[in-house]
Design brief:
This protein is 39% helix and 21% strand. It is of the alpha+beta class. A hairpin with a 4-residue loop joins strand 5 (147-151) and strand 6 (156-161). The longest helix has 24 residues, at 346-369.
Length: 627
Amino acid sequence: MEEKGTISIHTENIFPIIKKFLYSDNEIFLRELVSNAVDAVQKIKRLAALGQYSGELGNPLVEVALDKEKKTITISDNGLGMTAEEIKKYINQVAFSGASEFVEKFKDAKDANEIIGKFGLGFYSAFMVSDLVEIQTLSYQEGAEPARWVCDGSTTFEITEGSRTTRGTDIILHVNAESEEFLETFKLEGILDKYGKFLPVPIKFGTKTEQEPDGEDEEGKPKSKSVETDNIINTTNPIWTKAPADLSDEDYLAFYKQLYPFSEDPLFWIHLNVDYPFNLTGVLYFPKLKNDFEMQRNKIRLFSRQVFITDEVKDIVPEFLMLLHGVIDSPDIPLNVSRSFLQADSNVKKINSYITKKVADKLQELYNKDRKAYEEKWTDIGLFVKYGMVSEEKFNDKAKDFALLTNTKNEHYTLEEYHDKVKDFQLDKNGQVVYIYSNDPAKQDSFIQSANKLEYDVLLMNSPIDNHFVQHLEQKLEKTALKRVDSSVASKLIDKDDQVESVLTEDQSKKVKEVFEKAISKPGYTVEIVGLNPEELPVTITMDEFMRRMKDMAQMGGGMGFYGNMPDSYKVAINGNHKLVAKILSAGDEDTQAKLARQAVDLALLAQGMLTGAELTAFVSRSVELI
């Protein structure tokens, strides 16, 4: 048997094109060839199960062998094998409409997967790293003869009688000079670990030394001896392929540690399993969150039939769940998936919706089952829930029943419960309920205490998403406004009809205002005299709620750059009913008045964490002097 011919691809320069376009992703050649080998092994098992093959199956195995001297990499399997006719059919006839159309369409392509996936060029990725590719194969069919195929990267091939004596296929790559990095054991191990860690057929790569029992020594102590065993690099039955009923919590936690060895245990997990209208399995974990969210993104791994594809899953997983960890496996997503495919495919959109629903159902279940345990996890869970409510309308509709608001006393309320708690006492004169919140309880403690004295409740809103969540609540809750606790003096946070009047006359108010304006003497501060409870602070410095919120959002990249560039402006509220104001008015000279006013202003700045540098030093010196 000997035959020579031309590969039916209608162009002379297809291999240089493949090498050019796919060069940046050349490691995927091993993924493609190992995946093909796994498919061949699984197919012979299916044929045997259907009674279409009665020979010995043997132990299913794919082996990757490296020969540095010969500069070859061999991928072997004991699967279906091929006849010479099947080689011509499946290897030689790479069908697409024409070279000119191909070259024109993909001349600017950057994604190797886009080309490989489009034209089924998986096998031909071998030429990205090889000068010569050889196939040795023997079909499972009765009476089949071994066949050998060889190609040097041109469009010519040669088929001759092969040397293989057992069923299956060897793909032998003669590695080119530019790709000799792949002749290093650690390099191939890394690629196999990345793409093949959970393949359903054992993948052998060399051998390893293990210790096994070897009787006892003269003192009766157990002995061991070193033995060489196959180095199987994969786990063939990862937990996402099993039924949840067959798994324990320890199984899920052990798998999490396998994926993320240095991470804390997750809060909980969701086992995904659906076969209609698309196929999907997987396990998603809710991690304990750290401050550096970018470090925790892209931790969900996408598989297709247990072959790793990518960890960039933003089109499959909703944006607000990108901080989850775990795996998703769907045969409906092709192995050679491109970015454009993910964005356009209808199954991907269905998967996205399904995951959103599963997460919402799991959170509702946790809330209903054990609210106390749910509340204890809320600091971590809350970020996901709030982000989801802000970004996904369908998720918001479900989450409003299990989203929690937490106050500064660490009490938790659902949205409905909290509205019922404050609707009567925190109602302004226009019938609007006012939610008061703090984003930094330590820094804003004096403001919180002032609000508490008026029996106002103060919410805790200090997560990275809360600037947006505050806006969201105002949009979704009827006749409700949110104000930060330090956006005004306590008695002015909620505009009621029962405001305290200042005891100062118009002339006294004018005088006090002049004294404080002169004591501050810098732009951006507006002084006003207000009537407050005499027990309130003499001076309170605040930033307008709207302006401060816009600036906060601008800092987070919320599209408010105009406000972010505006200079800061503050309101200085002077409590006209405080005894210090009376002391200033009764002071005999302007210097004493200015000194007392400046001290009161500095105390207010200090309470806001705004007194630094030379001003802080001057305040300390003045305090010592006044003592």
